[in-house]
Amino acid sequence: GQTLQNADGLLLRGKTLYAVQNQLNRVAVVELASDYLSGEITRFITEPFASNPSVRVPTTIAAFGDALYAVTAGFAPPTPDFVVRLSN
After folding, report:
1. With contact defined as beta carbons under 8 Å apart, do 48 and 57 qualify?
2. Is 30 buried (19+), middle (13-18) or exposed (0-12) by CB count in 10 A?
3. CA–CA distance, 25 with 5 (Å, rounded to integer)
4. Which of 43, 44, 52 is nearest to 72 (CA)?
5. How far is it, in rounded angstroms, from Cα 66 to Cα 37?
6. The pLDDT value given to residue 56
7. Sequence-distant (≥ 6) Cβ neighbours of residue 9 within 8 angstroms
8. Which helix (H) or strand (E) element contains residue 4?
9. What is the pLDDT of residue 13?
10. CA distance linking residue 9 with residue 23, whole number of Å
11. Helix (H, G, I), strand (E, B), or coil: what is residue 68?
């Protein structure tokens, strides 16, 4: 029943889809069905976006080893773009 609003960057790891929801400052974790045609949002990753106002508006996501990382958009100077490790 839920939709993925503001979906930006995507990462597929096995049957788990991570969808960056940029303006919502979170990453939706979707467990996909065996045919990959549907899925269910099982949780949201909100850290470090919720606790650190300098790293808001994630735009894309990547995996390195067992960790997930996001790149944030630095829309307003002097705020730069950041690469942040996600709490998952």
Report:
1. no
2. buried
3. 11
4. 52
5. 25
6. 86
7. 19, 20, 58, 59, 60, 61, 70, 71
8. none
9. 96
10. 12
11. strand
Distance of alpha carbon 65 from its chain centroid, rounded? 17
- What tokens were used for 3? 């939709």
Q: 23: which 2 tokens?
A: 């303006």
Tokens, residue 53:
């106002």
Dmax (CA) for the chain in angstroms is: 45
CA distance 47 to 62: 15
Which pLDDT does position 24 carry in this prediction?
94
Q: What is the mean pLDDT of each run of 10 residues along the chain (88 residues)?
A: 87 97 95 96 95 88 95 73 86
CA-derived radius of gyration, the chain: 13
- Residue 45: per-residue pLDDT: 97
